[in-house]
Write the structure tokens for this entry.
Amino acid sequence: MIKVLHLYYDLMNLYGESGNILAITNHLKNKKLDYKVDYKSIGDKINFDDYNLVYIGCGTENNQKIALKHLTEYKEDVKEYIDNNKVLIATGNSYELFGKFIENTNGKRFKGLSIFNYSSKEVQDRIVKQINNGIKGFINSGSIVTKNHKPLFTIKDYNDGFKYKNFYGTHIIGPLLVLNDNFLKDIIKSIDL
């Protein structure tokens, strides 16, 4: 059975990113694979070893910091999960949690999980882009990511996201997996059954 965790389903679902969970479960159902989805958030105990796939969506800047504080308790577990080739998908600003730090517009830094070397800086003017060049979606980001040498997508002159093993991080929302069936198929293939 494939076990899916929708982490921070309540805090990190700003743009209806729960649609990505529906895309995942529909794909598994169509492949006639048994699956179970758990929903966990602040205050819940999490055993990452229980899951084949973890998904975190986009949230407000405030909710992002709340999720970061909680997820920091599991930093070593998350690092081990990623290093063991388990699938983790982080869309919108949730992928910033895994970097060195998040700097807000006042210059205050929030220590990230430091699993990866990139960092992010919140900006006054939101970055808004419609994406339709091999990958479809929408970016509505309040931050930029720096020191990212492994982008997930290269779209014309714009690099987005981060890819390491089976970690897929991107600012693209949309929801991403609903709009990009081939990308979803590739992710599901990478699950170690």
